[in-house]
Amino acid sequence: MTLTELKYIVTLAQERHFRRAAERCFVSQPTLSVAIKKLEDELDVTIFERNRSDVRVTMAGERIVGQARKVLEEAELVKQIAQEGKGQLNLPLRVGAIFTVGPYLFPHLIRNIKRIAPDMPLVLEENYTGVLRQKLRNGELDAIIISLPFDEPDVEIQDLYDESFVVLIPTIHPLAKQEKITRKQLEKENILMLGDGHCFRDQVLNACPGILKHSDETSLPQGTSLETLRHMVASGLGLTILPSSSTDKHIYDSDTLVERPFAGKTPYRRVSIVSRQRFSRPKAVAALVEAITSCALPGAATL
């Protein structure tokens, strides 16, 4: 039994597909298949049930894969401890962020981290919360920046900032003349939304549960990013709701788009950083927190 074989079974359990698992492990599919079969033979147990269209983890396999994750985490910890002699702030830090945070936070973060920890480069990734969660658990990322709620065992969560939501409106739209927008008014409009899988979509629907009453989701396109939503609003397709950190008046001027706050209680989201409880570089995470909380993000209130 090797760490490589354990990595293979953990990855296959995540992907449920041999080709995708092999690609993630940077090996050929036959190499992955042979290694997993060898491990099953060594343990004398079936870890995966295989058919032409699906791969499923057996009941015994679930326990084995869970323990394999813990072994891989411990192995990563050994590597990190071995590197501690070089200093916690002298090694790259692997940081992930959700799609609706990364593009707007990273430019400010890079400027600040160079001042706080100049010898600690950042390896950055944007992804969905679920993918970031898995990569943090598997030791592929050292810290992730997400939006609450977030529930995961054996992690440290530090709140960073709250940011309000704003309504993005074409300048020619009648609502552009108002100083504030009510939720009732939005219920009568075509509201462009991100697609399923984006936590910001869920947060908007929780804050404004009636905004899809008028919109026909089958005919309205879903945005793949906040920027695609911005461009579609500029084209006159509808309105959208954005987190305030994503507001950028350099792309479209006020002759094309305007931003308006909500009337009444303003909806917002809380952005937090998550790391493993036993991560061996707490000073690196602290430096990251300091760099983020010193960023001057539009509409963000640090905690």
From TrEMBL:
GO terms for molecular function: DNA binding; DNA-binding transcription factor activity. Belongs to the LysR transcriptional regulatory family. Signal peptide: none annotated. The keyword Transcription regulation applies. PROSITE patterns: HTH_LYSR. It comes from the Bacteria. The keyword Transcription applies. Residues 1-58 form the HTH lysR-type domain. GO terms for cellular component: protein-DNA complex. Keywords: Activator, DNA-binding, Transcription, Transcription regulation. It comes from Ketobacter alkanivorans. InterPro entries: LysR_HTH_N, LysR_subst-bd, WH-like_DNA-bd_sf, WH_DNA-bd_sf. This is LysR family transcriptional regulator.
